[in-house]
Amino acid sequence: MDISIIIVNYRSWKPLQNCLKSLLLINDSEIAFEVIVIDNFSNDEQFSTFKTRFKDYNFIENNINSGYSNGCNIGAKKAKGDYFLFLNPDTVISETALKTLLSTYKKNPEIGILSCLQVNKKNNFFNQKKIFPTFLQLFTVTKYLSKVVFQIKRDSFFSTNKELFYPDWTTGALIFMSRNWFEKAGGWNEDYWLYFEDVDICKKVKEQKGKIAVTNKTSIFHEHGGSSRINFETEYISRTEVIISKHVYIKNNFSSMSKIPAHTFLILFTLLEKIILSLLGLLLFSNLKIKTNRYILKNLCLYYSNAILQQTWLSQRSVNYQKTKYAK
After folding, report:
1. Cα 98 from Cα 125, distance rounded (Å)
2. Is the pTM of this model over 0.85?
3. Class of domain 3-222
């Protein structure tokens, strides 16, 4: 088996259907691949339908929504391929893209993680000039300011005249890596429930002298948000987890001197922002995007209270939090 394609799904059945159909169209005798779909307890009666419809693919039903990292690790344990392609359910991939990823990876042994260009419905390319998060990039206002500061460095990464460019990290929507590099990185970090797990695994690979690369030679379709914005509840939970995962990333990757100020400023700036937006939401009842901030604020207050009580920055949804909780 050459490639194990691993897809983690949570109630993203419509985009997943398009993704799996695109894989059915790949009929290349030069590449042997398997498809493993891990469903994170969608619990909506669709799992058995898809399992029957795409009977050549391996469907695994999780008993909880354990997050992206854990879902990927479950898939990797079942995988038989020499290479792993971690793929979002809201993507569409072609035979050309799959062949390009495999051949490019084999030709460049210095690469630990490979990705490719991603295009949305409007035919716009996603920004893949990614730099590891710094103190400035944790906050909404300073994040935009830091884009200006690091623009020269970002531009040096990206060149349409070259086959490959080398960001610090690449989005988890498509990550291609060998089994060997996956094992060297220790798999996906289950401290994260959702978001920043892709940054973390890229950082581990770079720390072991592997390169993170994006090829300009091929692209996939990516319906950004097709998995995390399927309804109002999923959206505000997802947006809360972005903030929680920032704290987890600080805990895991910032220096001991910068952790305390980073956590402190992130708490203060985030709560202030959400309080202002929640008050604004009282005036704009019909604006759902503004309304989500009240729910995010509530969730964050519960999260910060629990962080103090349990002495941990981990999300209560994360697998490693649950392991720690039951171990006490």
Report:
1. 19
2. yes
3. alpha beta
